[in-house]
Design brief:
Number of helices: 17
Order of helices and strands: HHHHHHHHHHHHHHHHH
Shape: globular
Number of strands: 0
Structural class: mainly alpha
Strand content: under 5%
Helix content: over 70%
Largest sheet: none
Distance between the termini: 30 Å
Radius of gyration: 21 Å
C-alpha cells in the first residue's frame, strides 16, 4: 500500500522504506557478486578470470554513474513535488528521467563497445587478463539499457510509497541470475561469457517489470507519452541533483582505474585480483548503510517539502545513529574473520594469503563512511546539490585518488593503495557530516 509519509513517526517511515529497499539492493548486488563467486572458483584460471572481471569494474561503475545522474537525480525532485501536491510536475520529472536514461544508455553502449580494448589496457589489463575481461565486457555491455532503466526508474516506484514493489523489481531478475549463472558458466562451459549473459538476461527481466508497473494501473503516478519530451530546464534540475551521485560513482571509477594500474605496477595481476575480491566484500558490507540512507531520502524530502522541519531533524538523527552502529559492527566482523570473507570469492591460496592484511588495511576507519553517507543523504534529499557535489569530489577525487598515486611511491608499495581508502574515509566523511550539521541541521 502506498503512503504519503505524513502519518507514522519518521523512524517508522524510514524503516518501512529502507528495509524493502535494502532487500532489493541485496538482490541487485547478487547480479555482480554471484558472478564473482562463481568466477573466483572457476577451474584452471589461476585467479586471472577474477582479475579480468575486476578490470571491467570501472566501466560497470561508469554506467552506474550515469544511472545515478539521470535516474536518482530526479527522485528527490519527484518526492518534493509529491509533497507539495504538484502531481503534474512529478509526472513530468519521471518521464524526462526515463527518456534521458534510455538515450544515454545507447551512447554508452556504442562508445564502450567500440573502444573496449584500449580502455581495458588503460584500466590495468595485461595480455593474460585481457582475454577474460574482454569476454565478459562485450556481452555485459549489450545489457546497458536494461541496467540503466531498471536501476534508474526503480526509485520512482519507491518514491511513490511502494518499496515492496521496488524490491520485487530486482528479486525476479536476480533469482533468474542465480539459476542461469551455474548453468551457463559450468553447465554449458561458457566461463566468464556465461556470467555476463546471465546478468544481461536478468537485468532485462528487471527492466520489463519496472516499466510494466510504472505504466500500469497500480502506480499512483504513471509514465505518459506526453511527459517523455525532454524539457531543458527540468533536465538541468535533474542532473544538478544527480550530479553528486554521478560524481561519487565517476570518482569511484577513477579510483578503480588508479587502483588497478598501481597494483599492476607494484604487485601484478595477483594484486588486481585481490582488489577485486576486496571491492566485492566492500559492496556487501556497505550495502545496508547505503540502502538505509537511500530509504531515508524520500521521507526527508517529503517532510522538507511539507515544511515539517522537526521531522526532518528527527530523521537525520535516526539515520546517523543506525549508520554509525552498523559500520562499527561491520568493521569488527572484518577484523575477526578476514580469511573467511575472502574465501567466499576465491579459492586461490595466494590471493587468500595476500588478501587478509590488505582487507584489514582497507577497512580501517570504516565507521567514518557512515558520516559520508548520512551527510550526502541529507544534502541530496533537501535539494542542496552544490554541497552534495563538493563533498563527493572531496573524498574521492581530492583525497583518495592522489593518495593511491603518492603512498606506494613513499615506500608502502601495494599497501599504500589499500591504505588510501581509510584515510579518505576519515577526512572526507568527517568534513561532509560536520558541514551538513552546521549548514542544514542547526538551521532547520
Amino acid at each position: 500500500m502506498a503512503t504519503d509519509f505524513s502519518g507514522n513517526t519518521v523512524s517508522k517511515n524510514i524503516i518501512s522504506q529502507a528495509v524493502p529497499l535494502i532487500m532489493a539492493q541485496i538482490v541487485q548486488m547478487l547480479y555482480n557478486v554471484v558472478d564473482r563467486v562463481y568466477i573466483g572458483h572457476l577451474p584452471g584460471s589461476d585467479g586471472l578470470a577474477l582479475t579480468g572481471i575486476g578490470l571491467s569494474f570501472p566501466i560497470v561503475t561508469l554506467i552506474m554513474a550515469f544511472t545515478q545522474l539521470l535516474g536518482a537525480g530526479g527522485t528527490p525532485l519527484f518526492s518534493m513535488a509529491r509533497g507539495a501536491g504538484e502531481d503534474g510536475q512529478a509526472k513530468k520529472i519521471m518521464g524526462n528521467a526515463f527518456s534521458m536514461l534510455l538515450g544515454c544508455s545507447v551512447v554508452l553502449f556504442v562508445f564502450c563497445y567500440c573502444f573496449r580494448r584500449p580502455i581495458l589496457f588503460l584500466f590495468g589489463a595485461s595480455e593474460a587478463s585481457y582475454v577474460y575481461a574482454d569476454a565478459y565486457l562485450k556481452i555485459y555491455l549489450a545489457g546497458t539499457a536494461f541496467s540503466m532503466v531498471s536501476a534508474g526508474m526503480n526509485g520512482y516506484i519507491n518514491a511513490q510509497g511502494f518499496p515492496g514493489t521496488g524490491m520485487i523489481t530486482t528479486v525476479a531478475g536476480a533469482a533468474l541470475n542465480l539459476v542461469l549463472d551455474p548453468v551457463l558458466i559450468f553447465g554449458l562451459h561458457m566461463g566468464v561469457s556465461g556470467a555476463a549473459l546471465a546478468t544481461v538476461v536478468s537485468q532485462m527481466v528487471s527492466a520489463l517489470w519496472v516499466m510494466r508497473f510504472l505504466t500500469g494501473p497500480k502506480a499512483i503516478l504513471h509514465i505518459r507519452k506526453a511527459c517523455l519530451r525532454i524539457d531543458r530546464k527540468l533536465a538541468g534540475q535533474i542532473t544538478a541533483l544527480g550530479l553528486s551521485g554521478f560524481i561519487m560513482q565517476a570518482t569511484n571509477c577513477l579510483v578503480q582505474v588508479l587502483c588497478n594500474a598501481s597494483l599492476r605496477d607494484y604487485g601484478g595481476d595477483l594484486y588486481v585480483g585481490v582488489m577485486t575480491v576486496i571491492n566485492s566484500i566492500r559492496e556487501v558490507l556497505t550495502l545496508p548503510v547505503h540502502g538505509f540512507t537511500s530509504g531515508a531520502q524520500p521521507v526527508l524530502g517529503y517532510d522538507y517539502g511539507a515544511e515539517r522541519f522537526d521531522r526532518v531533524k528527527s530523521g537525520i538523527r535516526f539515520t546517523t545513529a543506525v549508520g554509525i552502529s552498523y559500520t562499527i559492527l561491520a568493521w569488527i566482523v572484518v577484523n575477526l574473520s578476514p580469511r573467511f570473507l575472502l574465501s567466499i570469492f576465491t579459492n586461490n591460496q595466494e590471493m587468500l594469503d595476500v588478501g587478509q592484511e590488505a582487507l584489514k588495511l582497507y577497512f580501517m576507519g570504516f565507521c567514518f563512511m557512515a558520516f559520508q553517507f548520512c551527510g550526502q543523504c541529507t544534502f541530496v534529499a533537501l535539494g542542496r546539490s552544490r554541497q552534495a557535489v563538493f563533498f563527493s569530489l572531496l573524498r574521492k577525487a581530492f583525497i583518495v585518488a592522489p593518495l593511491i598515486i603518492l603512498l606506494p611511491r613513499l615506500g608502502l608499495g601495494a599497501d599504500g593503495v589499500f591504505l588510501s581508502e581509510p584515510v579518505s574515509n576519515v577526512i572526507g566523511g568527517s568534513a561532509c557530516f560536520i558541514a551538513m550539521y552546521l549548514q542544514v541541521y542547526r538551521r532547520l
